[in-house]
């Protein structure tokens, strides 16, 4: 039986095309807001928080703007006011109905920020209504609890946001994203072999750095929520500062990298170190060099580093779905989770 998660993974190329078609014409609106601000504050939880990590790196590396991740409890629990003059607050919520995120965006506006919402919940979603500008993604209804197409369309919206903020990237590269995702769905690499390798272990470390860090965090989250695996998402810089001690024959590492960029050599060196310690190293992306240094490999997209996260997560989604089924878990409805999570 085909799961909803697997069907929704397959819907991503169309969802990305529709989202980019809807949002690229709004670049001038984004620029107008961006011109009134100096730095960014991303407001999110869960999968959306992982997307925000991509937005942070994109803003700082390519748009030259300081960006940070919000702590919503400052607004919702401590109820403290902060001077946010000159800040562009960007709130991400797939449903647009998570009360904590809506409240925090409203708080940011009250503190002087200009505000953007990124949501798949439609123009009428409370988050969209609370924002100065709503970037509504076009993923369509998502039935499986683990987010797939709503996540990648969030990344697409953040890429458009980056363009509006003056990122020093080639806008034309975005046109290739849906086709690259389609190729990855058709030929993701060693999914079955890696699923077999992960099916008998208690935990896994998932690591990437820079633009790929968001993918490492998101893949770790997917493995936790859909496969009940103790998956730890880390920057490889943090991994080398101590947690690498947990990597052994019972705890493999999944290493994520774009096919180009300054973090690729370090990821290859880490794969060699992991294997040297007697552990399995599974690659996601990183081209032929990372694949050669690893035990098995998932394919990566033929995209520049700034867009690679939109493709890198896709083989990881397929791995998660395949591993869940191998373990006898329904990936559409993991225990203890709902599609919309409310926090205080």
TrEMBL record:
Keywords: Repeat. GO terms for molecular function: carbohydrate derivative binding. Residues 29-172, 194-329 form the SIS domain. InterPro entries: GlmS/AgaS_SIS, GlmS/FrlB_SIS, SIS_dom, SIS_dom_sf. PROSITE patterns: SIS. Signal peptide: none annotated. The keyword Nucleotidyltransferase does not apply. One of its GO terms (biological process) is carbohydrate derivative metabolic process. This is SIS domain-containing protein.
């Amino acid at each position: 039986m085909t799961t909803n998660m697997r069907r929704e993974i397959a819907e991503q190329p169309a969802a990305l095309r529709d989202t980019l078609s809807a949002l690229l014409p709004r670049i001038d609106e984004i620029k107008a807001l961006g011109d009134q601000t100096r730095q960014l504050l991303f407001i999110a939880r869960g999968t959306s928080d992982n997307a925000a990590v991509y937005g942070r790196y994109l803003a700082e590396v390519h748009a030259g703007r300081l960006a940070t991740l919000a702590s919503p409890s400052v607004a919702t629990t401590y109820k403290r006011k902060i001077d946010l003059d000159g800040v562009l607050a960007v709130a991400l919520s797939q449903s647009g109905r998570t009360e904590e995120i809506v409240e925090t965006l409203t708080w940011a506006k009250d503190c002087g920020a200009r505000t953007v919402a990124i949501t798949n919940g439609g123009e009428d979603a409370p988050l969209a209504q609370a924002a100065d500008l709503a970037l509504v993604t076009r993923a369509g209804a998502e039935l499986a609890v683990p987010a797939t197409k709503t996540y990648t369309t969030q990344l697409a919206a953040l890429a458009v946001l980056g363009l509006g903020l003056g990122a020093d990237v080639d806008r034309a590269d975005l046109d290739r994203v849906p086709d690259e995702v389609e190729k990855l769905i058709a030929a993701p690499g060693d999914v079955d072999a890696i699923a077999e390798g992960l099916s008998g272990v208690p935990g896994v470390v998932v690591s990437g750095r820079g633009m790929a860090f968001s993918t490492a965090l998101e893949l770790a989250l997917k493995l936790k929520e859909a496969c009940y695996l103790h998956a730890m998402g880390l920057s490889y810089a943090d991994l080398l500062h101590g947690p690498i001690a947990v990597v052994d024959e019972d705890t493999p590492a999944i290493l994520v990298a774009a096919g180009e960029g300054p973090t690729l050599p370090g990821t290859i060196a880490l794969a060699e170190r992991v294997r040297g310690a007697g552990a399995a190293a599974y690659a996601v992306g990183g081209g032929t060099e990372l694949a050669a240094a690893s035990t098995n490999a998932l394919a990566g997209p033929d995209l520049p580093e700034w867009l690679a996260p939109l493709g890198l997560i896709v083989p990881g989604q397929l791995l998660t779905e395949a591993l869940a089924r191998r373990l006898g878990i329904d990936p559409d409805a993991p225990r203890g989770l709902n599609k919309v999570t409310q926090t205080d």
